[in-house]
């Protein structure tokens, strides 16, 4: 029998279900704690989600169970959840268009947390008030280490990228992926395309540093850091700042201080759980506030 609790979130009534279900067994972390985390982190998370079409990874039976990506808004979604209909080139289900949800407020965030949408992914662009896409406001480099390289080597590459971007008059902001790598975000207001710029810089880094590759092929990546510039393709998404990840414990994609990147000498130093991140935000605020917010 499904347990259900009715709550008021803002001006909306929500029915929360199976709150005692354990979604992260190694940490005994329940759905109630997932909802609590997303509620408490919402002041810094929501600015990075507003206006961005949503893709989630749902884990209804926890991180040990089956999961699925969901872009199309579920049929049972409340009418007050904002939806935008957008073209879906390359859809795996041969759809010409997809109705995406947009997380503009806390009730929508809690609604998705209750669906066990542990991971939140969004593109580098938004839709306007009319629901039409606007040009990207963010550029991203996704840094993925090929074993035996780790996030320590990713930090080394991030520092090189920071200097190259600074030379081009661009500021950059680092975060962990919440898994083994990290991302570098760049606020973008230029006419040039983000994908073209990111590709050119990744190729340049590859030509100058033997431990860097801009090639996606697995065989090219052992011991190197792959700079994935292709995340700037409008059809792609990247895990949002402050999103949980579906690991053994509730790790989070965590904005970093540059000092932490500079000082990183062990992968363990840049692993942060939900509780850690709430403490970090209480201390530092939103380190990603200049990024597309």
Automatic annotation (TrEMBL):
Pfam families: LigD_Prim-Pol. It comes from Microbispora corallina. Gene3D superfamilies: DNA primase, PRIM domain. InterPro entries: LigD_pol_dom, MtLigD_Pol-like, NHEJ_LigD. CDD domains: MtLigD_Pol_like (cd04863). NCBIfam families: ligD_pol. Residues 30-288 form the DNA ligase D polymerase domain. This is DNA ligase D polymerase domain-containing protein.
């Amino acid at each position: 029998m499904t347990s259900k609790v009715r709550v008021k979130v803002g001006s909306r009534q929500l029915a929360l279900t199976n709150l005692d279900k354990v979604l992260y067994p190694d940490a005994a972390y329940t759905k109630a704690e997932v909802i609590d985390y997303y509620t408490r982190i919402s002041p810094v998370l929501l600015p990075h989600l507003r206006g961005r079409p949503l893709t989630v990874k749902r884990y209804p039976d926890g991180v040990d169970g089956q999961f699925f990506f969901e872009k199309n808004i579920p049929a049972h979604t409340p009418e007050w959840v904002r939806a935008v209909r957008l073209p879906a080139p390359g859809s795996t289900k041969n759809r010409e268009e997809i109705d995406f949800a947009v997380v503009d407020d806390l009730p929508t965030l809690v609604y998705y947390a209750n669906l066990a949408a542990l991971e939140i992914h969004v593109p580098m662009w938004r839709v306007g008030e009319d629901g039409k896409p606007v040009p990207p406001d963010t550029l991203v480099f996704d840094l993925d280490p090929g074993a035996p390289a780790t996030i320590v080597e990713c930090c080394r590459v991030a520092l090189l990228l920071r200097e190259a971007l600074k030379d081009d008059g661009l500021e950059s902001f680092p975060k962990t992926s919440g898994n083994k790598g990290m991302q570098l975000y760049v606020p973008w207001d230029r006419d040039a395309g983000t994908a073209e710029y990111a590709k050119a810089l990744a190729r340049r880094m590859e030509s100058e540093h033997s431990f860097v590759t801009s090639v996606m092929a697995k065989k090219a990546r052992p011991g190197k850091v792959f700079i994935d510039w292709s995340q700037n393709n409008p059809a792609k998404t990247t895990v949002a700042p402050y999103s949980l990840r579906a690991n053994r414990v509730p790790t989070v994609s965590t904005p970093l201080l540059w000092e932490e990147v500079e000082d990183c000498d062990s992968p363990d130093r840049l692993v942060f759980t939900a509780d850690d991140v709430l403490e970090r935000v209480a201390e530092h605020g939103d380190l990603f506030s200049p990024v597309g917010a």
